[in-house]
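thread: overnight batch results

M.L. [08:02]
morning all. the overnight job finished for the chain we discussed friday. pasting input first so we're all looking at the same thing
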Amino acid sequence: MLTLKQVEAVYWVSTLGSFNAAADRLNATQSTISKRILDLEAFLGIDVFERNNRAQLTLKGRELLGDFEKMLELQQSVVSRAGNESSYSGRFRLGVTEMVALTWLPALISEVRKVYPLIVLEPKVDHTTKLWPQMASHLLDMVICPHLQTEGHLFETVQLGFMDSSWMCRPDLLDDRKGGLPIEDVLRLPLLTYSEGSLLHQRLLKAIAAANIWHDNTIVCNSMIALAELASAGLGVTYLPREYFSSYVESGNLRTIQTSLVLPPLEYTAVHRSDAVSVRIADIARSVCDFGRPRWHRRQTDTAAVS
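M.L. [08:03]
and the structure it wrote out:
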């Protein structure tokens, strides 16, 4: 008899390129995955994978793969339509950037678990340029990141919201000037910028180059929090998400700089597979997306101020 677990095993071995990876994805042993595929091949009376390369589909296997994908999508659709979403107990691998993790990832996880109490969530925090290849290789089920102009990918994309940023430095480093400062004056200070894998960093360097400004005094860091601390210590000027780091401005550790070089807000999207669970989680992400300080963080700050 043909089972969905057998179909699932074929799909993930083909997608991930190895039995080990498929076993890890399905939370099973390699021997279990091998047995499911052997049982499927015995039932169908064909070889689905090549005998001399067990991760490569045969011609007949390639013909069947599209049908297998439809069977798995139909399974999730049936569960969803039956109103039994909460029964989903599989793993869901979610890639997010640092600013999502610092702001609304806790709210997203909380809301997802209300809908899917048994789901096993596996968030991964990294740069967009590192998360996207993992999505393309099916190692992640969803990526929440700045919008990428990618052509020809087979995933769905949902617009979530925008993140605005501002130039910031320690208050005593630059003189206030009515109407703002020329960007040339601002960039006489060392530039504290996010690491090269970030789209914010890439956009910033492109904007500086387009303004024909020569700048070679740069400190690159892979943490937004660390950048804010370096700027607070007077080590240079930085470009940070405005709402989240407003507490640094309110406390007097940083101040925003009005200048001639301003980037448009960064659009964030959820890129995901088309199955019912992924679609539902993308919808939840859209409802909770908020790049301001999280409520728990605001309460903590307010309590400290009172005491």
